[in-house]
Amino acid sequence: MHRLSTALGLPQHRFASIHVVGTNGKSSVTRMIAALLEAHGIRTGACVSPHPLRWSERVLIGGAEVGEAEFGAAVERTAAAAAVVDRGLEEGEAVTQFEVATAAAFVAFAAARAEVAVVEAGLGGRLDATNTIPSRVTVLTSIGLDHTEWLGESESEIATEKLAVLRDHTTLVRGRVSPEVASLAEQAVAQRGAELVVAPEDPGEGVELRAPGRFQRRNFALACAAAEVFLGELDESRVRDIAATLSVPGRLERVAEDPPTFLDVAHNPDGAAALAEGLSELAGDRPVVACLSVLAEKDAKAMIAALAPAITHLIATKLPARRRGFRAGDLVAAAGEVGIEAEGVEDFGTAIARAQSRARALGGILLVTGSHYVLAPARAALGLCEDCGDGHRD
What we know:
There is one protein chain. By secondary structure, this protein is α/β, with parallel strands linked by helices. It is 42% helix and 15% strand. It contains 14 helices and 14 strands. Strands 4-3-2-5-1-6-7-8 form an 8-stranded mixed sheet, sandwiched between helices. A 6-stranded mixed sheet has the order 9-10-14-11-12-13, sandwiched between helices. Helix 7 (179-192) links the parallel strand 7 and strand 8 (195-198). It starts with a helix and ends in a 13-residue tail after the last helix.
């Protein structure tokens, strides 16, 4: 990645940067920080992952998806540089797809004359392709047990990988973490000669969020703390305006009304627990029918157990083709072990239709969740129209 960005003329040095790392909440916090900076008059880019439909959805400029022509030009230039770098690598090594995507985002930000980019880490931090930015602020959203095959078997091992992105004499802004991780953050700050800011868990009275769920109030409070570190101070009226208008795709996102239908990308036990907390607030006394698909490497049983307090009935299904996910029957068995009523429908589209029908009959709400990769097929199965106002297309 260093060779690739050097071949491109170090585009990430043409704008300031904020690095967002953590297990859950990264995309929400990244979008929120970017929106807050834009509201204060700073031309801002944001890099998020993964994407529901198009690679260009990972690159936001001024809060909107980068233009097709601009993204194409950035990818073309980056691919040409990657071909040159590949020729100088050892046999069997090559620039990866994610490295090209990340570098192309930096090229696009530089071309758009972004003043700052808020960059979400992909996997971990220390060895992540995004760890080539000279970040002024690092944000640690949370730490949980996810991607343990790559990052370590304990929270402390995972936190160490993520905290390794902190730069000397900069600022670390952290959200809610365990005492052990908090101690590691303090050690990392001391070693780097950096400053530590502990974000509050709520943005305060008078701040009403469009994005539902208590977990989003925590995320917004963290985003405000990071934006304030970068800017020096925040305009309270602009903060309230962003809170009231910003929606986050795929995070308790309401996409239909009959029955009320929500999409959420919770894909690990901690994410599922935060989702369950938010669902309880939204649903009240109404039953919740969940349609669930989970990638094969995830802890599906723990995810279902975390969701259990907030859902009435579970319809398990398999992720569409090309994604290695649990079979519906395996998820039903896992649900049975934690005492949840469940049925299996192997075909994803049929499962959505079954869940809709069940939620409608019960007078309840429908939730589709379990992975980032449910978003696009769920929108298609629900018949959401092209250019439906949230930046997505069938």
